[in-house]
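Homework-ish question, so no full write-ups if that breaks the rules, but can someone show me the predicted structure for this set?
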Amino acid sequence: MSAAPGTTVSAAGAHGQADWDSDPILRVEHLTMRFGGLVAVDDLSFSAGRGDISAIIGPNGAGKTTVFNCITGFYKPSEGMLTLRQAGGDSYLLERMPDFQIAAHARVARTFQNIRLFGGMTVLENLMVAQHNPLMLASYFTFGGVLGLRHFRNAEKGAIELARYWLERIRLIDRADDPAADLPYGAQRRLEIARAMCTKPELLCLDEPAAGLNPRETAELNELLRFIRDEHDTSVLLIEHDMTVVMEISDHVVVLDYGQMIADGPPDAVRNDPAVIAAYLGVEDEEVETVEREVEAGASGGDGAS
Amino acid sequence: MTDTATPAGTPAQAPEEPAPPVSQPPEHDLASAVKDAGLAALVALALAAPIMGLRTTSQSGGGGLVIVPQWQSVLIAVAAVFVGRLLLDLFIWRRIVPVPIGDKWFRRPGGMPLARHAERFGGYFGPLVLAGAVVLPFLPIADRYIMDLSILVLTYVMLGWGLNIVVGLAGLLDLGYVAFYAVGAYSYALLAQYFDLGFWVCLPLAGILAAFWGILLGFPVLRLRGDYLAIVTLAFGEIIRVVLLNWYTFTNGPDGISGIPRPSFFGLEFQRGDSGFAAFFGLDYSPMHRIIFLYYLILILALITNFVTVRLRRLPVGRAWEALREDEIACRSLGINTTSTKLTAFATGAMFAGFAGSFFATRQGFISPESFTFIESALILAIVVLGGLGSQIGVVIAAVVMIGGFEYFREFEQYRMLIFGLAMVVIMVWRPRGLIATRQPSIALGKRKSIAGDLVGEGHG
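A: Not a homework solution, just the prediction itself:
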């Protein structure tokens, strides 16, 4: 890799610091994850801006999902610091928290590359499970719920309303009582996002949300993600291979290759970054210079992967 | 997007068989009904001929067995089957579209017909069984033997329901469930022996102690899944039994504890004399009073188990159990503390086993470690698996069939094991997800639709 790790393509704004660095919701500093001898993520630092859609892209095996697993607590990072600052001002050091507390307290929700729905439960039940913690409190840790107290019944009604809101939003309200495993693939993807949103997250991490979707579904996904960003004060961090999604909706793109950051900037700048193109075309390190020159000559700036 | 999203659901949800054509000529109906009834009669003949037709009686004077044919009873049975089937065909099943026989008998496992029947009658079946259970002691058939057998069946129903929480809902395979049953039984026996406490005080204490042991077991096994979890729970069950067996000074070891006090009815003992239950209510003393009282006691305990389980399923904790069975990682990503969720499942299941255990102790009046061997755990697990994981009514059916059948066919001695083994194999081939494989949703916006068993997860330990 000829490009030094962390080559920052400066943001469109003339000011020296990029928008997302001023008050980031998530700051990743010197994140390193080793599996035995393999360094999956190597000294990675970036920030995800508050109220932004940030995308992490990179070729297969670049360490994107590992970064996600570190942020959401499924892996404990070998080194580094992950600071999440909520809108209310509370800060959480994610690397020190167990996974379920990251979701419950730091309010980071995530989806999975291979969809993980509760297939034998209905669509509505999936969204109710997502509201487990507030409902658990409302049921006075089950004891009040067994007695059928009014307080819990009201809380449950509220939870159903929230689920209904999201089901209408993702156009699955008609299938609310069907098992989640019976839904078509695209609907399952949307349901997983809705389920994550039912936890009322500050940061929503989506692992390849557009994988396996047709162009129309992809367009709808873009609309949904914009809606989440604009209407729900939720920042979005996503991993994606589909460049139409990344280029269209993201405010900020981080490019990984072999666990290192090779570019960081707004989508237009990243799209034309020779190192990114080289990484996506998968050339040998020695040939990077040649490819870069070719790209410069072509000057068309097509979106590498797609 | 419109065509891929919502409207796709409506055609896909249409029933797989079209609505039955009502305008069938009645002559055809009659002919096919006669044919069907004839076929049923043939099956009845094949079954009845050896079973009813040949009766072995021992000759007086010790001449061994002779076979006495009884063809008239065979004839009656076959005729009854023919007429009954014909009537059913003509008046009850007439609206059901005839299904090709191969389809009817060799339907793919987990196929719909039986599930659909269960759904149709499921609403009535539970209350019907309950009503039958409530009036049973007053039916003429209820002699001492039937009542004892019913108490035994109900004990296993309760244990099955308790284990259903752990295995069926939370998806944690527990092979040492009988340990909590033993804890409950010994809690009552020892508390009564050493502190002279009565049954009604010990019942909740036994539940609490068993739940406590459930949590104790839960902690070390939380990290384990599947086979490993099963082995550790199995070992735990054996540890409890071996401790009970060897701690002679405390538990009286293999000699067991005898003279465990009987329960009283609000302070009235079931005994002869002026202070007894019978004298107080002006009844003639009968040993059946105590049996009937025990019967209702276990019925109420079992119903409480059922009520709490059904209730918990609709609460966040129950949904978290089921979600845990479906996908543990997704649970954690939603902020659910899987550790405490698993522990509550273990503790709740163990608590009900503790209640059942103290009931067992008070009914028997004597307990020893002999009663809490691995085979009991296996039996309870078999009831849950045969009934259908997570299904309450399935557990009842399986317990009646397994325990009732097992006791009823006691005369067959060793062959009954063979027959029951075969029966289990057949059921598992025929319905691999248990008798009632469908799952009822815990909440619905519209109409509750049961979920086919093959969509429901089995848990990974």
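Now go work out the reasoning yourself. Hint: Chain A touches chain B through 57 residues (CB under 8 Å).
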